[in-house]
């Protein structure tokens, strides 16, 4: 089935499908949705500075909005836990990239988004998850979202900890260049944030 039609023969477009999917995440977990919107802003801004193609920017936009869609498959007692997770709970949470990729799998128009969702927690040194990809084996757009994701997470309050200052978060990113993050993209990201926030 390529499309869903109503009496007026209006096809369910991929955009409408994406909006419905995004709304599912917003309803399931408002914090994750708000995080994804902020991650999208940082990721697209970096993509524009790197002069990516229109198509890549579109993929970055959709990939960032949906990077954590798999969290709709994570239990509330883990997703909403107000303190640090146990090792077992963390293992459950770490399944969200694979759950997200399964959710998108039936929509062939989103084939190019799946690698972003699946690999946004890989680390440049190969110590991330789910597949321990290393360096440039990690899809390029996933490496951008990894930076935006980490910066947004560090500078936001969580149920179990207070937000870091942007300055502190940038220092953490710099420490992780070549480890968690792509050094080239990481330097570009730090420069971009410093230019946007002149207090840094
Ligand atoms: Fe994630």
TrEMBL record:
<dbReference type="Pfam" id="PF13487">
    <property type="entry name" value="HD_5"/>
</dbReference>
<feature type="domain" description="HD-GYP">
    <location>
        <begin position="10"/>
        <end position="200"/>
    </location>
</feature>
<dbReference type="InterPro" id="IPR003607">
    <property type="entry name" value="HD/PDEase_dom"/>
</dbReference>
<protein>
    <submittedName>
        <fullName>HD-GYP domain-containing protein</fullName>
    </submittedName>
</protein>
<dbReference type="InterPro" id="IPR037522">
    <property type="entry name" value="HD_GYP_dom"/>
</dbReference>
<dbReference type="InterPro" id="IPR052020">
    <property type="entry name" value="Cyclic_di-GMP/3'3'-cGAMP_PDE"/>
</dbReference>
């Amino acid at each position: 089935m390529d499309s869903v039609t109503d009496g007026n023969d209006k096809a369910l477009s991929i955009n409408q499908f994406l909006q419905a999917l995004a709304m599912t995440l917003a309803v399931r977990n408002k914090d994750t949705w708000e995080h994804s919107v902020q991650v999208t802003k940082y990721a697209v801004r970096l993509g524009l500075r790197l002069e990516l193609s229109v198509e890549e920017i579109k993929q970055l936009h959709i990939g960032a909005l949906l990077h954590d869609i798999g969290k709709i498959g994570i239990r509330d007692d883990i997703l909403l836990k107000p303190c640090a997770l146990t090792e077992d709970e963390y293992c459950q949470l770490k399944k969200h990239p694979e759950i997200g990729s399964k959710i998108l799998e039936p929509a062939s128009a989103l084939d190019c988004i799946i690698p972003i969702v699946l690999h946004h927690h890989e680390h440049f040194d190969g110590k991330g998850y789910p597949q321990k990809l290393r360096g440039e084996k990690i899809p390029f757009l996933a490496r951008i979202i990894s930076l935006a994701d980490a910066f947004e997470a560090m500078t936001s309050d969580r149920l179990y900890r207070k937000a870091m200052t942007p300055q502190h978060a940038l220092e953490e990113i710099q420490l992780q260049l070549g480890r968690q993050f792509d050094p080239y993209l990481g330097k570009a990201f730090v420069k971009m944030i410093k230019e946007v926030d002149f207090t840094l």
